[in-house]
């Protein structure tokens, strides 16, 4: 029954696509630590290793053209996400593939509950925009996710278009 509802809800969701704005403000980021992990063996921090103990299935992303991005503050992991580089990307929320050739897709961001509503997600997005400033970056979010949309806009992304599941 759960699988049925999971497949059904796809038809009622709307995704908003955002792309990087060319003007970036990367001030006040000095007290944070931004790290990029291209493989699991490069993870030395116990706290980040714990992420992969909780989310075991995400380890395989390293073999699927994805890298792990983290933001730490005072030695604590406060936000994380993933970056994909490839030709096409499947937005699982609406079960739809999009062409992303010559673009980086950032996705699946997590901010632990005790660090939410403190601007860490926005700061992580700003770090990503700064690090990959010469790349075209795409991010998407469910239209109903008001908090993420605000953070995405504050970080320096512009709304591009809406996507829904194709009904054939």
Based on the model shown, name its key terms.
168 residues; alpha+beta; Aminopeptidase; seven-stranded mixed beta sheet; 4 helices; 9 strands
Chart the SSEs and their pairings.
Layout: H1 2-9, E1 14-20, E2 32-37, H2 46-54, E3 66-73, E4 76-85, E5 88-91, E6 96-99, E7 104-110, H3 120-131, E8 137-142, H4 146-155, E9 157-164
Helix pairs in contact: 3-4
Please state the oligomeric state of the protein chains shown: single chain
How many beta-strand segments? 9
The helix count comes to 4
Strand content: 35-45%
Number of domains: 1
Element pattern in H and E = HEEHEEEEEHEHE
Strand order of the largest sheet: 2-3-4-7-8-1-9
What is the CATH-assigned architecture? 3-Layer(aba) Sandwich
Distance between the termini: 23 Å
**Per CATH, what is the topology?**
Aminopeptidase
**What shape does the CA trace take?**
globular
What is the helix content? 10-25%
Mean pLDDT: 91
- Can you say what the CATH homologous superfamily is? Gcn5-related N-acetyltransferase (GNAT)
Low-confidence stretches: none
Major sheet details: 7 strands, mixed
Notes on the structure:
The chain has 168 residues and is an alpha+beta fold. The chain has a single domain, classed as 3-Layer(aba) Sandwich (Aminopeptidase). Helices cover 23% and strands 36% of the residues. The strands form 2 sheets. It has a 7-stranded mixed β-sheet, with helices on one face. The chain has a two-stranded antiparallel sheet with strand order 5-6. A hairpin with a 2-residue loop joins strand 3 and strand 4. It is globular and about 45 Å long. The model has no long low-confidence stretch (mean pLDDT 91).
């Amino acid at each position: 029954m759960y699988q049925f509802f999971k497949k059904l809800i796809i038809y009622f969701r709307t995704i908003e696509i955002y792309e990087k704005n060319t003007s970036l403000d990367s001030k006040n980021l000095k007290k944070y630590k931004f790290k990029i992990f291209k493989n699991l063996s490069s993870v030395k921090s116990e706290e980040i290793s714990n992420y992969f103990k909780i989310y075991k299935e995400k380890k395989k992303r390293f073999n699927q053209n994805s890298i792990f991005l983290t933001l730490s503050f005072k030695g604590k992991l406060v936000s994380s996400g993933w970056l994909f580089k490839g030709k096409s990307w499947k937005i699982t929320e609406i079960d739809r593939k999009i062409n992303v050739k010559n673009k980086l897709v950032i996705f699946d961001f997590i901010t632990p509950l005790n660090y939410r509503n403190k601007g860490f997600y926005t700061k992580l997005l700003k770090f990503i925009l700064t690090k990959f400033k010469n790349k075209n970056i795409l991010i998407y979010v469910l239209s109903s996710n008001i908090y993420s949309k605000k953070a995405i806009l504050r970080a320096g992304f512009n709304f591009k278009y809406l996507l829904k599941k194709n009904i054939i």
